């Protein structure tokens, strides 16, 4: 069957294949297209610039805050609904890892080539063996250097597995981002009983550090309440942009664009396009 597909692809390419490798031409003809979200995020100038701008805004904000020693963390105590107090705790900035500190280009290419959105078994292998195949996001290296120079410790809070802690430590280091140590400056899914929710991990971090900035590519990187599965897309957006959260975006909370995966990419036509906005051209 593969041989038949190969010959069919060569035949369809016609005269254009006479001066090129027919096998390579056939492979190109049947290879899947790069998903548009990945084209934008991983390949475009626009994607790189958007990420760098966000990192620049975060560093400017955090360095200025470090000079004034804020009274409160930007992490909210889920028990009280109020920010954790900073006291005399050392300063920190908390980051998600995947598509926030690093782009997982190696694994995402594999998923795209297979026509698969996600495979947990493959992802587990990626966490273990992907060292050197993920890259620091634009502006991330400069941001880590600037934060550390200002006395602000970068901390990663990610839903990578605690079972693969060594692989994630090595991946972040190989990307040039510095040392992240599990249980100290690296927190992983499985560190507590809260599963993929990061709320308990955030509370643990806030008990040790004065967190003056927080960054991620999903709303769950800031509060898990935003990820209630019953929330339709527009209600989720309304919740995340209503008071008191509206004052935090760009002012302690920094969101990176990710059109590739996550809870933001869901909903049918009626979920995304409200009925009152429907329009059709006249015949």
TrEMBL record:
Residues 1-18 form the signal peptide. Coiled coil: none annotated. The lineage of its organism: Bacteria, Pseudomonadati, Pseudomonadota, Alphaproteobacteria, Sphingomonadales. This is 5'-nucleotidase, lipoprotein e(P4) family. It holds the Pfam family Acid_phosphat_B. Keywords: Lipoprotein, Signal. The gene is lppC. It comes from Blastomonas aquatica.
